[in-house]
Amino acid sequence: MYSITLKNIKGIREMVFPFPEKKGVYVLTGANGCGKTSLLVALCRLGDKLAFTHYRVNTNALAGLKIDAYQNATITYSHDMESVTYSRKGIRWVPNPRTKSNFIGTFPFVNTLFVSTTGMRFFAQDILYARRPTMTPVSANIITPMNQILGTDKFNDLKYITVKGKKGRQRQLHRNNKLYVIKDAAGNFYSELNFSLGERLLLNTLDLLENISPRTLLLIDEVELALHPVAQIRFYDYLKKQASSKNLAVVISTHSSSLIKHADTRIYLEKDSYGKVSILTDCFPAYILRTVASDEDRRPDFIFFVEDIMAQRYLNAFIRKFLADVKRLIDYKVICVGGYEQVVTLVQSFPALNYEKSKVQAFLDKDVEDLHNQWEIKGTGRTDKENKMLKLFQDNKDNVSYLSITPELGIWEWIEQHPDILKVHIDQQHGVQGFDVVNVVSETTTAEQPNKGGNLRIWAKGCFKNFKERIHQANPLILEEDVVGDMISCYVDNHYNLDRLKKIFFPLFNR
Question: Is 287 helix (H, G, I), strand (E, B) or coil?
Fold first, then answer.
């Protein structure tokens, strides 16, 4: 695994960041001061030897006081058992050992382009001098995304003029001396100096990206600057296409809730009171944003937090059936959060979110209940982390419940034992099939058997994936998502116990 470790950089005591080894767009987020920009600088160093100049150092001592010295700061690049560490010596950052100075060239993406919150991103070309100015059409690689991202067609006739220095002396004025101009509806031309801030920021970024090399690590700090939330989403989608077609890894830092909700891959930097930054890649937007708002901004009567989408679908199926049977009109929302630690931590945040804690409940998978029991049994043999987790659970015990199963594992193990019941259920939902569901279950079990010796939860997820693909292949009219819904609803129908559910939900609804 490739990784970058930052120590004693600004307010970061330690951060170990797993390097993104695959192409795609990674949304980097976290609270102010968690180290997003510092991390981007460390990533930028892979291809830019001057990247560390972003760590500004005050070279003028004030009464002998050292300011911004980064005396104990280190940045380590690692892969397997090899590594190189950079630390500040005088005015330079030097590698240790020096023989490993070229080690970072072994990382998957070594070309870097850093679009920071300063410099070229805010650049506007001055109109200095142009003898017989020629207006050159701008590439569609800039015009098309400008129009699509900003939801307009005003840039269809975007052109540029090549400008020169005063008195005809040529000098590099940045951005290949291009001055962008556009014609308005009245036929008048106006320059980029009169573009809106959002238009100029986007134009400069697209100009930088137009000729980006394949296998580049693209870094964009605060990608949402001056862009409307809709434009932010469109820009993200544009970057996804670029990452796929040009084989790029794109890391964008943001505080935008719109982007955090929309992103496929989120990297959340969580900093504790001691300055240690944890990297969370499996949490959902609810944990990052600490919000209970739905897409329609409704305020439900009750909020239930679960670990993942499977638990969400499983719990929703039980609650819908239960509320229909007891004829209760309750508005609720089941929200995916991430790992069990993130779920309980989010529960603990209440009532900080202006929402009564009595209206919030975590429903964790069954395997977490087993883990919790193991912590209690260990007694004095618990690790510090286990003691910390046990206290977190105890402090929130009234707001933590457990599902009767770990959904993928419990459902699939039951289906293996009762494939005939699932066959009847699928035939009822989709009509009598020309294939035998029982045989498909058996084929899936055989295909996934070699993986059963490892993590059972991962094995069960593999069985789910294998099974839904086989059913869809046998009958393309049955979508894979429908197959998962059938598996869940079949299990719920056969394990529904009204009296047991009354004991679970009535105390919650009435407290």
Answer: helix
Q: Where are the alpha helices (DSSP H) in 247-339?
A: 257-262, 285-289, 309-326
The ranges assigned to domains in the chain are: 2-110+215-280, 121-206, 285-403, 407-495
Q: How far apart are CA 322 and CA 411, in angstroms?
A: 19
Distance from C-alpha of 17 to C-alpha of 43, rounded to nearest angstrom:
10
* Higher per-residue pLDDT: 358 or 220: 220
**Rounded to two decimals, what is the model's pTM?**
0.75
Structure tokens given for 329: 């009109």
Q: What is the pLDDT of residue 67?
A: 55
Dihedral sign, Cα of residue 455, residue 461, residue 467, residue 470: negative
* pLDDT one-digit tens code per residue, 226-243: 899 999 999 999 999 999
Q: Which two tokens stand for residue 243?
A: 């990452």
Alpha helices in 151-228 (DSSP H): 197-209
Model pLDDT for residues 241-276, shown as the tens digit of each residue: 999 999 999 999 999 999 999 999 999 999 988 899
Give me 112's structure tokens: 């870097």
CA angle 167, 168, 171 (to 5 degrees): 110
Tokens 């930028």, located at residue: 44
pLDDT at 125 over 90: no
SS (H, E, C) 433-448: CCCCHHHHHHHHHHHH
Place of tokens 């779920």: 343
Q: Do 309 and 282 meet the contact criterion of CB atoms below 8 Å apart?
A: no
Contact 3, 16 (CB under 8 A): yes
Q: Does domain 2-110+215-280 have CATH number 3.40.1000.10?
A: no
Write down the pLDDT at residue 482.
92
| Placement of tokens 């544009």 in the chain | 238
Q: For 93-113, what is each residue's pLDDT tens digit?
A: 899 999 998 999 999 987 899
